[in-house]
Amino acid sequence: EIVLTQSPATLSLSPGERATLSCRASQSVSTYLAWYQQKPGQAPRLLICDASKRATGIPARFSGSGSGTDFTLTISSLEPEDFAVYYCQQRTHWLFGGGTKVEIK
Amino acid sequence: QVQLVESGGGVVQPGRSLRLSCAASGFTFSSSGMHWVRQAPGKGLEWVAVISYDGSDKYYADSVKGRFTISRDNSKKKLYLQMNSLRAEDTAVYYCAKEGDDYYFDYWGLGTLVTVSS
Question: Is A98 exposed, middle or buried (0-12, 13-18, 19+ CB in 10 A)?
């Protein structure tokens, strides 16, 4: 079973700052990795698929990179609505990482 | 527009059963794989089960294998999750999610809360 480990658990930043979130797989998942955003009381929303492709309607400030076992989600300049929890997911067995909470500093 | 609406949640005693439903609209239900994902209070997302577009293939998380059964009725555009032998650790919000063309979850319902407690 492939395990996804996200870091850090919490990221404290101010609006306008750059956010860098990490997701590491216990074995290679090629580029079969997605990122989701979840706000309190809401369902998750697909942001990035296949490691780097933005889903429909996702702003350009969100970008994904990586392959194999190491992946990164970058938010270039945090907007107030971006403070949320972010999860990575591998496509093969649909398992999720533990999440990174991006909170206002 | 795509809509997924879960129902059937509630409070149930340990060891009892519950059936969740997910009503789909706005897309060709019979062409899409469908999933159940759950989230315990204050915790992360946990994938639960998947069913192929025609119901021929089903897979489960180890934590629910042998207790939960996923099914679908394409004529009614509905997805189901039969949950038996419920445990306290099954307490969670249960989401149904649609699988997109690239196999990721492109649409989610709002979820239904299942509480297992005596």
Answer: middle
**Residue A77 Cα, gap to closest chain B Cα (Å):** 24
CA B91/CA B110 separation, integer angstroms: 16
Identify residue B5 by its one-letter amino acid code: V
Q: Which residue of B has its CA nearest to A98?
A: B44
Q: In this complex, is the C-beta atom of A33 within 8 Å of any C-beta atom belonging to chain B?
A: no
Nearest chain A residue to B4 by CA: give it. A43
- Tell me the backbone φ, ψ of residue A37, rounded to 5 degrees: -115, 140
Report the C-alpha gap between B51 and B32 in whole angstroms. Answer: 9
Element counts in chain A: helices (H) and strands (E): 0, 10
Distance from CA of B30 to the nearest CA of A (A): 21
Neighbours of B79 (CB within 10 A): 28
- A50–B contact, CB cutoff 8 A: yes
For the segment A13-60, what is each residue's pLDDT rounded down to a tens digit?
999 999 999 999 999 999 999 999 999 999 999 999 999 999 999 999
